[in-house]
Write a sequence for this structure.
């Protein structure tokens, strides 16, 4: 077993542990820190990032308040770059006791915390979203801090003073020799081996886990882990910390930090710091309390919710509520307490007081070792991440990252678009730090912490990690799954509204276009984070009436020049319906809010994932395919193939035997029909292939693809081209490449770069960007010049092959005299008993009426935006406001794994229809005589999960379009 | 809901980026998604703005039209640009230039009385080169010629109809007043041929050029003044109609939304405002449009301007023109002509604007018709500049079909029909 000796070993890589290892190292002690995962993995990385002024505790816990304020002043000096000087408000809402104001002000004065009352108009000027019924507002020097960065910089400083930091080292037990703790035994999770660290003093700085660690040496520490649930709003709805002016309680604080606003917190005693759930009532509470501060609170998008465990310590048990326990820190010397030498425990306290906690602990260590060394952590500024000593340090500002991107015009290098993390940032992180998982990069750089929650950056960061570290490809695949699951975990409690739509898009990307389930290797690793426990089921009755719709101003008259068919929605289903309807000479108009899912999907037609149609139809009696019948399905697909062929974009394949194509991760994906630009990629053909990418195109990592194909016994090699013409571009997206491939000059450059590097290669796979307008010409030209087959591999949206399908159909519709209007969001309708006489779309100044004999809803499902769900669990279609059935027990909506082998139950909600695809109510009665539903808005199946997204849209659109003839 | 709140709806799909005509031709503009929902999360009201590239947004609003989630991208960008202006991040010379080209009304008032001289100067190459060097107005940019007689001068002198049965307010806008009074004459003729008494109240520039240059305070003054001029008619239920699509869009939506003007009077003016074609199609649908239209046997390309599509009312211009016997209108389906109001006049943006319009120009050249139809004045000037083809407003064809004498490009056509 590996043995290490040190003066002091610190357990726990949170704020306290990293602060302590820095303090000890600065005093010249040989110090080592072990952390079971990455730094900040525990409670430090899960709190709201509040730099307390102390105001929160002035009445309840004056000692904690005093400590907070003293440390607040010091931290502003030593780590301004980790702090945003937001200031804080204490506001008295109509729900708060005005009698609290007096003791609050006295408490502040007593602790020396500067406090100033603001007029309500002044308050609203600074924070216009706050509740105008707030009656008093006090400003205090609260701030927000980046706890990830602070821990990293403390560790960095400690390393500078010769400390050793071992992450991914999980403590198995304290090593005890009679009444003496002599070290720790831990497991190196990366090398999968045991390590013993011998030290004169062991400091247990493991926070809420202190009891578990101590127990391994037979010592009892009564920790009461206090679970606190927080929720992040997608953007900054305030720029000042907002506290309720009352005794600390649940849901009373809103903290703006980085790009989000964090609403907190609940406080629930849990038995095990590693195992607890987030319950739906906690989110409801946060929303309700949020509305008291900001009346519009519910209208904002929640990104995720998470829970951390406060390390609350109590020497005697029996206290009724967690909030009664002091938030001041506790240093336990186990000689006095338990008669055990060599062990100290530092716990409880606040993030804000971490440095003080480290100081008193280090003082104690020195005392025990008989050293006279003074603390210097309050005198020396923490290093910067970039190590440019010359930079003048100032407080962090929200716009700092954007300013940097704008100044350097580095927007083409964004790997995480939401949080503006660039390729060089991540390269530096991977090469300089001990990065094992994508989560490590996240904690360092905020990768994947924005609205799309890893939707795009997961592939990109994994590709980069693979390119730089070249580990076995299975490890990368596992890292991808781990990261997707970790991001899923935090979204689960808040999946409604916009974030639900986002996860549907992410599902489309990872479960369908990239087929992550099919990657070689395991779908989770030993680094994977623990799931939250499943909350107990609960029945919540949805509101009895639907949410009030906006009042419609209606002045114009519906067009009397009558439209036969009005199609709402411009995805595949809507376009196909309009095409068939026009083909049959119906006067047809298509209106849409925007473009649809064609732009996101692979550009192939998935009908069924490798199943017999007949068997499927028999097994699924209510499925749209069954309602359509197999002959209609075949006719639809044949007609569509004919259309594509006539547009010089043949789609090849069949229902019975599809193609097995590589994805942009190198997994294999079964599809029924693929454009001619992709067919040479069929992996049932064993000829060697070369995967070619472009250095500037960050959505496509050839080596990752080739390695995964090799892992599945295919002959694949890779090449990344660094073309001169691309170096001149500030950003190279799929669209930029597609437009370039449309030009012979660019193709010539690509051919020249490849010509002498082909060897035995028989086919070349490019990202799916081989021309927007004339892909067939592009691909034939490349094949002729290179003398090998060429194929496309679809990847992250926007999808060029999907856009080609969209363009092909819109051109046909226009050719047939149809009109397509986008930017028109349908918001209501007018009916004459069981006929819809007109629908309205939102327009400048008023609503635009559209009269038609037949209305087709092709607005999509949760993915396409045709169906929306609110936080009450009320689902409705977004165009006409018709209700959609939805399970009321929120805990049954989703499985706790994103990549679940079963479809998530919520994801099949949609319209119930009869065999004519007319929507029906629960009793089977028609809703309207002239309304039809096609595509993703249909319910009862999950098109992404069963790989039928395009097939169902095409078939149902075709069927209804034909029926109207 | 303020436009910025809509950024929550973005699912990062980048459909807008693929459709953006500006980022398709220059990578000085990283695209709509980057600028609005993405950068929007890094903007804070109390801090210095980090923005630069957002100034390259042309404001064409194609992103809004294709966005499947309803993010108000163009509005967010316009407001981010206003912050740049407010915080002094636009260099003074460019700001002076922007204020000059954004004040068509002021220029008109000053230069129209000396139209021959002003037009001579505007066509003088050394003068244009000097204007580019000093002010940053591109020397090739399509500056329109001042008219010899203002629209309102003509209007006051023209014989009013004897027995009108309904009333309408005409918002002529600066271009009709100072540059293209023929459009206003056609509009008045068409309205009067439909039995309207046309009221032309005092009015200001709608303020759109100022809005699109981030000069919000100046734009607010204009809009407040227009609301004051127009409110009494709105209260009487008299429709306010305009031939300039950008003026009507500004009255309807742009000014109230961008400037956070949500008072009752502004709202009433907004709801009383109609685009000219939209209004005639409402008359048609009511059955009260004069359908005594003569044949015009021509095939003509029609470009629906971005600002027109932003009304979200479809393409009533095409439906209206299709009422004219034998007239065949060919929709360009093109994204944008590039000019985007004042955008294409700027020396640093002229080439971008010309490239943006390339596919439209090719479409027009390929058709080889005698002239082009387009609703928006700056687009007409850009089209003529790039293709050499005269461009007219749809109302001019309606007037011709009613038998009024054609003017400008239609002058020669009329005789042949």
């Amino acid at each position: 077993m590996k043995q290490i000796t040190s003066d002091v070993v610190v357990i726990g890589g949170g704020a306290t542990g990293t602060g302590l290892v820095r303090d000890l190292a600065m005093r010249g002690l040989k110090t080592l820190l072990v952390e079971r995962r990455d730094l900040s993995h525990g409670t430090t990385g899960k709190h709201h990032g509040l730099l307390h002024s102390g105001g929160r505790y002035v009445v309840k816990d004056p000692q904690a308040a005093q400590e907070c304020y003293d440390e607040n002043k010091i931290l502003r000096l030593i780590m301004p770059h980790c702090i945003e000087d937001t200031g804080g408000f204490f506001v008295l809402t109509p729900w708060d006791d005005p009698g609290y104001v007096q003791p609050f002000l006295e408490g502040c004065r007593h602790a020396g915390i500067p406090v100033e009352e603001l007029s309500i108009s002044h308050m609203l000027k600074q924070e216009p979203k706050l509740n105008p019924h707030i009656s008093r507002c006090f400003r205090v020097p609260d701030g927000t801090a980046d706890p990830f960065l602070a821990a990293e910089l403390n560790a960095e400083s400690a390393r500078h003073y010769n400390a050793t930091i071992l992450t991914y080292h999980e403590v198995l037990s304290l090593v005890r020799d009679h009444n003496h703790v002599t070290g720790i035994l831990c497991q190196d999770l990366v090398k999968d081996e045991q390590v013993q660290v011998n030290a004169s003093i062991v400091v247990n700085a493991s926070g809420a886990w202190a009891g578990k660690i101590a127990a391994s040496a037979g010592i009892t520490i009564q920790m009461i882990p206090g679970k606190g649930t927080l929720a992040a709003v997608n953007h900054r709805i305030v720029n000042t910390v907002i506290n309720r002016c009352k005794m600390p309680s649940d849901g009373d604080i809103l903290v703006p930090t980085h790009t989000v606003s964090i609403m907190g917190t609940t406080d629930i005693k849990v038995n095990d710091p590693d195992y607890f759930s987030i319950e739906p009532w906690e989110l409801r509470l946060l929303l309700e309390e949020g509305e008291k501060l900001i009346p519009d609170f519910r209208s904002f998008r929640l990104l995720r919710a998470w829970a951390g465990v406060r390390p609350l310590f109590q020497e005697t048990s029996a206290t009724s509520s967690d909030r009664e326990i002091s938030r001041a820190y506790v240093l336990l010397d186990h000689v006095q307490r338990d008669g055990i030498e060599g062990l100290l425990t530092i716990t409880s306290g606040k993030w804000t007081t971490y440095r003080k906690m480290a100081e008193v602990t280090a003082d104690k260590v020195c005392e025990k070792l008989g050293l006279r060394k003074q603390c210097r952590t309050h005198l020396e500024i923490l290093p910067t991440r970039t190590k440019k000593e010359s930079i003048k340090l100032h407080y962090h500002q929200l716009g700092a990252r954007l300013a940097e991107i704008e100044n350097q015009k580095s927007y083409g290098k964004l790997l995480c678009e939401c949080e503006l993390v660039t390729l060089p940032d991540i390269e530096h992180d991977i090469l300089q730090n001990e990065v094992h998982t994508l989560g490590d990069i996240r904690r360092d750089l905020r990768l994947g912490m924005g609205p799309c929650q890893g939707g795009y950056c997961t592939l990109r960061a994994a590709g980069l990690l693979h390119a730089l570290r070249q580990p076995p490809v299975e490890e990368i695949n596992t890292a991808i799954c781990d990261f997707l699951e970790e991001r899923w975990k935090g979204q689960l409690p808040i999946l409604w509204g916009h974030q639900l739509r986002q996860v549907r898009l992410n599902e489309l990307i990872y479960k369908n276009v990239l087929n992550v389930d099919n990657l070689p290797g395991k779908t989770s690793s030993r680094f994977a984070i623990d799931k939250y426990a499943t909350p107990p089921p609960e029945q919540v009755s949805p509101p009895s009436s639907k949410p009030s719709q906006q009042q419609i101003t209606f002045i114009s008259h519906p067009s009397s020049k009558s439209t036969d068919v009005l199609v709402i929605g411009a995805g595949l289903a809507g376009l196909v319906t309009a095409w068939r309807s026009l083909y049959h000479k119906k006067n047809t108009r298509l209106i849409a809010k925007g473009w649809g899912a064609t732009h996101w999907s692979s550009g192939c037609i998935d009908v069924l994932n490798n199943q017999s149609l007949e068997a499927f139809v028999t097994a699924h009696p209510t499925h749209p395919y069954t309602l359509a019948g197999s002959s209609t399905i075949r006719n639809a697909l044949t007609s569509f193939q004919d259309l594509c062929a006539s547009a010089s974009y043949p789609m090849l394949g069949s229902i019975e035997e599809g193609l097995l194509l590589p994805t942009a991760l190198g997994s294999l994906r079964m599809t029924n029909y693929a454009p001619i630009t992709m067919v040479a990629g069929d992996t049932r053909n064993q000829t060697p292939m070369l995967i070619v990418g472009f250095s500037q195109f960050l959505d496509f990592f050839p080596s990752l693809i080739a390695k995964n194909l090799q892992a599945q016994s295919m002959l694949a090699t890779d090449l990344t081209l660094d073309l001169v013409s691309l170096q001149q571009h500030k950003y190279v997206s799929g669209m930029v490449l597609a437009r370039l491939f449309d030009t012979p000059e660019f193709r010539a450059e690509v051919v020249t770069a490849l010509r002498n590097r082909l060897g035995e290669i028989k086919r070349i796979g490019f990202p799916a960007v081989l021309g927007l307008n004339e892909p067939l010409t592009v691909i034939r030209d490349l094949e002729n010049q290179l003398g090998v087959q060429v194929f496309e591999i679809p990847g992250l949206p926007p999808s060029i092959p999907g856009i080609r399908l969209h363009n092909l159909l819109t051109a046909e519709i226009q050719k047939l005299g149809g009109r397509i209007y986008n930017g028109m969001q349908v918001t209501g309708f007018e009916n004459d008993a069981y006929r819809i006489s007109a629908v309205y779309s939102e327009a400048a100044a008023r609503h635009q009426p559209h009269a038609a004999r037949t209305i087709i809803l092709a607005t999509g499902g949760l993915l396409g935006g045709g169906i929306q769900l609110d936080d009450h669990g009320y689902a409705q279609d977004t165009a006409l406001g018709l209700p959609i059935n939805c399970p009321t027990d929120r805990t049954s909506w989703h499985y706790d794994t994103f990549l679940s082998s079963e479809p998530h139950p919520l994801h099949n909600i949609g319209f119930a229809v009869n065999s004519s695809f007319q929507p029906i109510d629960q009793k089977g009665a028609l809703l309207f005589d002239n309304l039809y539903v096609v595509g993703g808005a249909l319910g009862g199946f999950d098109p992404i999960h069963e790989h039928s997204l395009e097939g169902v849209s095409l078939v149902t659109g075709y069927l209804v379009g034909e029926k109207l003839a | 809901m303020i436009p910025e709140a809509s950024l929550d709806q973005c699912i990062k799909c980048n459909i807008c980026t693929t459709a953006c005509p500006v980022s398709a031709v220059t990578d000085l503009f990283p695209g709509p998604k980057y600028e609005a929902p993405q950068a929007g999360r890094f903007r804070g009201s109390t801090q210095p703005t980090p923005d630069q590239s957002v100034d390259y947004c042309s404001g064409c609003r194609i992103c809004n039209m294709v966005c499947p989630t309803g993010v108000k991208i163009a509005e967010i960008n316009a407001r981010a640009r206003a912050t740049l202006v407010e915080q002094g991040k636009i260099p003074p010379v460019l700001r002076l230039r922007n204020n000059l080209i954004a004040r068509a009304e002021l220029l008109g008032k000053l230069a129209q009385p000396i139209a021959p001289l002003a037009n001579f100067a505007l066509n003088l190459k050394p003068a244009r080169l000097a204007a580019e060097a000093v002010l940053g107005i591109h020397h090739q940019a399509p500056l329109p010629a001042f008219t010899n007689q203002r629209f309102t001068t003509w209007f006051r002198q023209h014989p009013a109809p004897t027995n009108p049965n309904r009333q309408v307010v005409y918002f002529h806008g600066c271009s009709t007043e100072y540059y293209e009074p023929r459009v206003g004459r056609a509009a008045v003729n068409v309205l009067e041929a439909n039995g309207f008494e046309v009221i032309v109240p005092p009015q200001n520039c709608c303020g759109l050029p100022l809005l699109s240059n981030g000069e919000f305070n100046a734009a607010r003054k204009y809009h407040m003044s227009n609301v004051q001029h127009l409110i009494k008619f709105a209260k009487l239920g008299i429709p306010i109609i305009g031939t300039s699509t950008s003026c009507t869009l500004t009255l309807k939506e742009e000014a109230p939304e961008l400037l956070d003007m949500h008072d009752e009077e502004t709202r009433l003016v907004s709801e009383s405002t109609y685009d000219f074609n939209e209004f005639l199609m409402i008359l048609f649908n009511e059955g009260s449009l004069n359908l005594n239209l003569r044949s015009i046997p021509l095939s003509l390309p029609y470009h629906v301007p971005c600002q027109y599509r932003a009304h979200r009312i479809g393409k009533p211009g095409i439906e209206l023109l299709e009422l004219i016997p034998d007239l065949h209108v060919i929709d360009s389906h093109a994204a944008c002509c590039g000019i985007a109001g004042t955008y294409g006049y700027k020396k640093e943006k002229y080439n971008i604007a010309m490239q943006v319009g390339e596919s439209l120009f090719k479409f027009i050249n390929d058709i080889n018709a005698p002239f082009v139809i387009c609703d928006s004045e700056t687009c007409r000037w850009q089209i003529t500049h790039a293709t050499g083809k005269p461009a007219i407003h749809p109302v001019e064809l309606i007037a011709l079909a009613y038998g009024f004498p054609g003017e400008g490009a239609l002058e020669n056509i009329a005789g042949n029909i």
